[in-house]
Batch of 2 targets.
Target 1
Amino acid sequence: MAKFTKKRGKSKPAISTASLPDIIFMLLFFFMMVTVLRDSDLKLQVNTPEATELTKLEEKSLVNYIYVGKPTKQYQQVYGTSPRIQLGDKISTVEDIPLFLEQHKVKLPEAKRSRITSSLRVDGEVTMGIVQDVKTKLRKSNQLKVNYSAGKRSEELN
Amino acid sequence: MAKTSTRDRMSNEINAGSMADIAFLLLIFFLVTTTIAEDKGILVKLPPWSDEEPDITKLKERNVYSVLVNAQNQLLVREEPMRLANLRESTKEFIMNPNNMPNMAESPQNAIISLKNDRGTNYQTYLAVYNELKGAYQELWDDLANKRYGEPYTDDMEFAKRKSIREEIPFVISEAEPTSFGDEQ
């Protein structure tokens, strides 16, 4: 080590750090693009099933999310262990769905309202009963575009 | 090194040149590990609500492809048990009816899929079944699009072409009110 410093003497190689901010900005921009801001934190365990025939959802502002699943550990004491529905950031019942849809609808311009999609994020383990109730409510509220949220399946069916 | 006095060391600046490398390392690490959260799923158009049940008894039996899923997540297709893996092929055969069988759809326009599940059916199974049915149609559209226009059926296709294909093989699925034999969670 001592030898090494001696050889170079006092001439310090000045490496320009001017590009550092650029790099940090790059990082920042990357994460700003990628990160999906979740405005509501999940109180339910939702592991969506996998499928192959997927459609990508365009225009996030036209999508409202309905979560169905069992409450997570910390909420189990309050809400029990049977599957519940979460609208926005609170656990609700099917009866609250029309109001929830209406609240989302009024924020949008009239021309776009026909393109509103409901994204159903349902846990794979949930039975169809509660999902059926949600579907019936959506049909009664005339919200017919529905997207069953699912991940991409890669392996073959058995 | 031993000879450098404390004062010398004080004036030494920390070399910030390697910071860039560290930042890059971080960047690459996150690039590799992040899965870009995409909102994907099976798009479904629900039928408008009406108080009376649609009457499918008026339809000819040969045109109706009934798929039942029970609370044990078992499949009953046209009165016969079936494995999920065979559903897609079997549905395709029913719709197109290549051998003009008397018990299959008269034409793709007449074919109707009737899906019925129990309130105790797992959502996962339900979605898998729906996925297979939709997949069968998707494959048929693909075949037709390839034959007619030499391109696969995608959303980027011209609207007129897509429309003509969908008129040739319309996706008609009727979901009956589910039974409630099984246990719900």
Target 2
Amino acid sequence: MTAHPIRCPRCDAQSVADERIVEHDCGHVAPIDAFGDGCEKCRRQADSETLTDLQTVERCLECGHRSPLVPEEGTNGPLPAVSFPTLPTPEQNLSWVPARFVPESRFRRGVLSTALVAMVLLAGIAGAVSVTPMLETGPTDEASVDTDWEEYDSLVIFRNDDIQPWYNQEEMRAVDEVFIERDVPVTLGIIPDTNGSAALTEDPEFCEYLQSLETDHPGQFEMAIHGTTHEPVTDFYGASEFGGLPEAEQRERLAEGEALLADCVASPSSTFIPPMNTYDTTTVEVLAESNYTAVSGGQWFTDEYYDTDNETYFRAGGLTHVPETQAFENWSAYEEAGEDDDGDVPFHDLETLTDSFDASHDENGVHVVMLHYQYFTTDDRLEKLESLIEHMQSEDDVGFLTVEQFAEGLEDGSVEETDDGWRVLEPISAVSR
Amino acid sequence: MSVERSFGNALRFGRTMGRGLRAVKWRSVALFLSALVPFGLLINVMSAGTLYAIALLGGLFVSYLLWSYYVVERNPRYESLFGIRALAVGGVGYLATIVWLGWLTPSPIAIVHLGAVVLIFVYYWFIAFIAFFHDQIGRSKYVPRPPYPNVTVLIPAYNEEGYVGRTIQALLDADYPAERLEIVAVDDGSTDGTLAEASAFAATSDRVSVVSKANGGKYSALNYGLLFADGDVIVTVDADSIVDRDALKRIVAPFEANSRIGAVASNVTIWNRDSLITRCQQLEYTIGVNIYRRALDYFGIVMVVPGCLGAYRREVLEEVFAYDPDTLTEDFDLTMKVLRAGHRVSVSDARVYTEAPATWRDLYRQRLRWYRGNYMTVLKHWPVVTDSSYGYLSRIALPFRLVEMFFLPLASFVILAYIAWLVLTGYVMTVLAVFVFFTSIVFLIAALGIQIEGEDWRLLVYAPLLVVGYKQFHDALNIRCLLDVLIDRDLAWTRANRIEQDSSEERESAPSAD
């Protein structure tokens, strides 16, 4: 340490000396004297290899004040002109609003700010609310399920028609229970306003029941619209609610039914089941406009109207047509002899039903069974349904789907016809809606 | 008489209530509570299993927080129990449980999806709530009052010509007793006119002194400058920053209020908001940095005292031997050292204005240094993660930081891949719906941040970019930096160009002191 004749700028003592400042490898910066016993920070040794000279400064031995060495000539120039940029301040929050719109009084400015906050708040909430229905039908949860391709020899679709409030509710629940117990999916054909006098929404208990099916058995019960009033409005192919009506009237009828169904169930499907199994090309146009993907009438009708030959499914007018191929009820017998001994529409015998399925199975076909819940009034009748399902399930490699799962699956590739049957991306309920 | 007394009491009570209600910041309350709507909707569309899984994790998380509070504040004897390691084990057990119960189908997407939803809940209802609460009741707890301590402001400067003078002038203009303020500019071997510019101020003001040394990096400049500091409180200011007029008074106030506080952070504000990229950064600062910092302040564990304006008790700096050379983010590293030494680190309302990178390239260079430095610092202080004796630091601050640094960037790309798959398989509308939904939540969080920070409402326009675009840029950079640090690539200082300075290869290649 070299003593200087100058005085300390702080205490005026004439005991200023040079001091060598060094930096150790560990980053510790101190006078060289402080490293006499090694580095106090890292406890490692300090020598010429680990120490780097930083600067030599002047230090007052009396008060300890350090001063840098006098800067070299030329470093003390004139004070530079300093300009500051425009800095944002909280008080300038409304500076971007044109001046003529900013009130002068503080209170009114506060009101304006509050109005802006309210707008932001409403915009945020409106954004979230507006897209929530789309999230509900989104694949976010379902897509997280592991899926796998399953090979089937044939496919079976059950279609339970005429679902309506008040009427034979016990029978309706009993039939649903059969499908639940057997874990078989089913398309429910729901009449939104039977005969124009039994709107779904007037029976909240009924709607709650349907919603409970959707919630408790996701993907198992398809909520399809079955006309609007189910009345035979025209004599199109014998009788029809839609076929033969002008386009505008069909559109209006459909919209009425859709509104009622949407208020009753959580997820109305994209399948249309025409009452009396009949519809025309206008019906299909109206349905395609309304984003339906499938229409399920009767095969006897589609063979004639679309000139097909026992086709179990086909594309026409932008929709997939999946007609019923086997009725549970024996309508021919009913037309000839009327009701059976129990006073109900007669059913086919079990053998007829199983033979029909077996034929479809052998041909790797799609077997669409139509039934009407209201006729399942006795245990024997329910057992017949159970027996049929049992028979189907006893065969290996039979896939069960709803109409919508089948139609949408064909569209999005999760259902494919193969050389020897079908392959389905299972669980299909997780893949489709 | 008693009727009159009762009436008087009722009147006083009414007045007190009236004052209380007037003190409530109702706009913040409205914005905070408005998020109930999207969260309610989110809960509504969730499957029962997901909801139970979130509730169970929420229970685990709340139990952990309550236990942490108990052992840190009341009974340190049990501090080794149910710490971060036990929480990690609990997390694995939790995953096994929800898979076993059928609430979660085990797949990377499902786990990331659940993690993302949980983080949104936690971020909003824990971080944002504490920040909101802090704003409602806590801001006035550090009111600047005389006597003010002796302060030394250190300004490390490397090639800051055109900037350092402005920084010094702003400090000289600051509202702080002149006899208690000392400004030390440390020239770190600049090759431009930085030394001359700073020396000109030293020649005209006895409050300013300039010291110079060979170029060695910011840590070295600060350690060197510290030898010339006489103040009881050491304030560090970057040579390109502009302190607000009352910033010095505000940043020293917490030291007077609480002797356990060892360091104080500031509120960083970007002044060059003339481009999309700088506005995005301001929004990021508002909701990602300042809100987060405010929440951690509640526990005294603010994790970064920013280099552009921060304050330390002198004895605390000396106790931890100031700055180390072994990370690229010396401010984060020093704050960790202060916290590890058992001191509280708090945040103040001292505002500092800084210039943000104005191009993607410059932002990339700046964040390359920050993120590499963050990973280096976390790895350097890794023992804290598993040592429960560090209280809230190891129990709350670091776990959040680890999730933010290690899980979120990776999760972000898993989700992005999932979204791409959804788009390719035809779920475009669903993807749009998810985007709008999460943007609305970010929008409300941003609005709350803007309201609390008194920021510019126009920044809300950029909220969607914090969901898609800007966010993925940072996530990708984080992953790159993590890999860089793990494979120990040569990690040199990278420095963004300034809009008011010309770039030079020489400047970029030397270790910087800003």
